[in-house]
Automatic annotation (TrEMBL):
A Pfam family per the record: ABC_tran
Domain of life of the organism encoding this protein: Bacteria
Protein name: ABC transporter domain-containing protein
Signal peptide: none
């Protein structure tokens, strides 16, 4: 039983009993966990107003319900959490609060497994990524490792360099705009001296990494082939 109390699960759907106020539900969860968070600690995570704490759970907004369900999972001080689409239904401010709590838990050494379709959240918060495609695990890696393995860079230059860009080797996907020209390359270190010789200054160039979303999408496309 001791180990079970250290595990918490947040389901994708909010399952909060109706007819109870938020504060009543918090008190109930405190009673079933011998070593629970204090009300002050809970409120520090939840940051509900007094009126929100006194509201019946069914009267809370979708984001508030989601945050409350998450904080209820933490009352028993679990060391291992499983979170299924934890930010689904949250507005921007509530989502920001959620990730602040996640960072706090990570700093405390908690282990957190979560599923998400929000790639930007995965990119900025995950230490390890498991990529599933049609129920099959196709990657077990980290955001840093993925980026290092996919060195494709998107380079943007003023349109005056268009003719020179067309003469370059080791580039692809040239896109002409009104004021800029873009291309992709995996040989940026080789190309940069050539750009300098053509009069390109560091202030002229914009360099972007390939987005994690595009990388993961490419991985799933490769798996289909």
């Amino acid at each position: 039983m001791a180990n079970k109390r250290k595990i918490a699960v947040l389901l994708q759907e909010n399952v909060l009993p109706k007819g109870l106020k938020a504060i009543e539900l918090i008190h109930f969860f405190q009673t079933i966990h011998p070593d629970s968070l204090t009300l002050e600690e809970i409120q520090g995570l939840l940051q509900f107003s007094t009126s929100q704490l006194q509201q019946f759970t069914e009267k809370l907004s979708g984001g508030q319900k989601r945050l409350l369900a998450f904080v209820l999972c933490l009352i028993g001080k679990p060391s291992l959490l499983f979170l299924d689409e934890p930010t689904a239904g949250m507005d921007t401010s509530t989502r920001q609060r959620f990730w602040q709590i996640i960072q706090k838990l990570k700093n405390e050494g908690k282990t957190i497994f979560y599923t998400s379709h929000y790639i930007e959240e995965v990119e900025h918060t995950a230490d390890r990524i498991l990529l599933l495609h049609q129920g099959k695990l196709i990657q077990d890696t980290t955001p840093y490792a993925i980026r290092n393995a996919h060195m494709n860079k998107l380079v943007t230059l003023p349109i005056r360099f268009l003719s020179f860009v067309r003469s370059l080797e080791s580039i692809s996907q040239i896109v002409e705009g009104i004021e800029t020209v873009q291309f992709e390359t995996t040989q940026l270190e080789k190309i940069w001296p050539q750009l300098q010789q053509a009069g390109c200054r560091i202030t002229d160039v914009e360099i972007q990494n390939q987005s994690l979303l595009n990388i993961l999408f490419a991985m799933t496309e490769e798996e289909k082939q």
